[in-house]
Specification:
One of its GO terms (biological process) is DNA-templated transcription. The chain is about 65% helix and about 0% strand. It is mainly α. Helix 11 (about 180-195) packs parallel to helix 13 (about 225-240). The model is unreliable at about 275-315 (pLDDT under 50).
Length: about 325
């Protein structure tokens, strides 16, 4: 069931739009089977702490944590409710040698993602209230900061853990309406740089990293203060795909790699004025002699829409309604 879910996710755009069962069908079935096997009860700690590495207890525990991780990444990326509640998600010391260094800490990060998903995969009214509650954002930032402090001495060469951390950090910032463009630019650029590195392994999570970074950079490319650096990041991601680095699949004609390339192409076409190559749209007042004069003396015209662009681009409604994977397909 887990492997069917991963295969469905690799074909992501096709299964999200239909035909064929989406990833949620396989994940839900796998979670239901795991509940039936009582994998969530964690009553065999002494059995999987020692003994055969391929024992039923150890395989069951690994499978459970794979499901927990995939469930949380699916929920936040598609703005869906969790299949597995927090009450069934408890990491214990015996899980560390069982899962290994990087998967153990990815599981910890995934728990933070679960809290974020629960905060926003609710009714529109509740989402609006949560967004404007500074305590929720503060708690999430604090939780993420405590995680960073706990791994600060070990993650220097662990690219997967590094990129996962900046992905979650970017999500926390994206779901905070007070985040400034320059605060978003740093984590998004870090994610792209690490995805382009040959030291970053290809995993079932890579297209999550690329999709959120691209959606963010595309939004920031519409903001004057971050436009240049944002386009550098977008081009770096495009170059990585052209060099066959691969983000999610090795097949160029389908999967998330193609969806990411298509979004980059659309944004580039928008930048040069559309398929016809005409001039790009210019906001009212921009390009006029009065506007140029105001720029020369450092003044802002009442008609200058830079502030409006910033507020609109940092609006999180689309990201919350569709998730970042759904957003790149709009």
């Amino acid at each position: 069931m887990i492997l069917l879910g991963l295969e469905s996710d690799n074909r992501g755009p096709a299964t999200m739009r239909g035909p064929g069962p989406p990833r949620a069908v396989w994940l839900g079935a796998a979670v239901g089977l795991a509940y039936n096997l009582k994998l969530h009860q964690n009553r065999s700690r002494e059995k999987y702490a020692n003994g055969d590495s391929d024992s039923d207890e150890r395989l069951g525990r690994r499978a459970w944590w794979v499901l927990v991780i995939l469930d949380r990444w699916h929920a936040i990326s598609t703005s869906s409710p969790l299949f597995i509640p927090d009450s069934s998600v408890v990491l214990v010391p015996e899980d560390y040698p069982l899962l290994g260094l990087v998967p153990f800490h990815v599981a910890r990060l995934s728990c933070i993602l679960g809290h974020l998903a629960e905060a926003f995969a609710t009714s529109d009214e509740a989402v609006s209230a949560a967004l404007h509650n500074p305590f929720i954002s503060k708690l999430l930032r604090g939780e993420l900061e405590r995680f960073r402090e706990s791994v600060d001495g070990i993650w220097g060469s662990l690219n997967l853990l590094h990129v996962a951390y900046y992905h979650v950090k970017l999500l926390v910032l994206r779901h905070n309406p007070t985040s400034e463009p320059h605060q978003l630019l740093g984590p998004a650029s870090r994610v792209v740089t690490m995805l382009a590195s040959p030291n970053t392994p290809i995993t079932p999570l890579n297209h999550h990293f690329a999709a959120l970074a691209l959606v963010t950079l595309a939004d920031l490319a519409e903001v004057q203060e971050t436009r240049e650096d944002s386009w550098k990041g977008i081009q770096q991601l495009a170059d990585a795909l052209e060099q066959q680095r691969g983000i999610a699949t090795t097949e160029d004609s389908l999967g998330w790699d193609r969806a990411i390339k298509d979004l980059i192409t659309r944004r580039k076409m928008d930048r040069i004025g559309g398929p016809g190559g005409g001039p790009p749209d210019i906001p009212p007042g921009h390009g006029s002699l009065q506007h140029l004069a105001e720029l020369a003396v450092g003044e802002r015209s009442p008609r200058d829409t830079t502030g409006l662009v910033r507020n609109r681009q940092l609006d999180t409604e689309t990201l919350q309604r569709y998730g970042y994977l759904g957003s790149i397909l709009l």
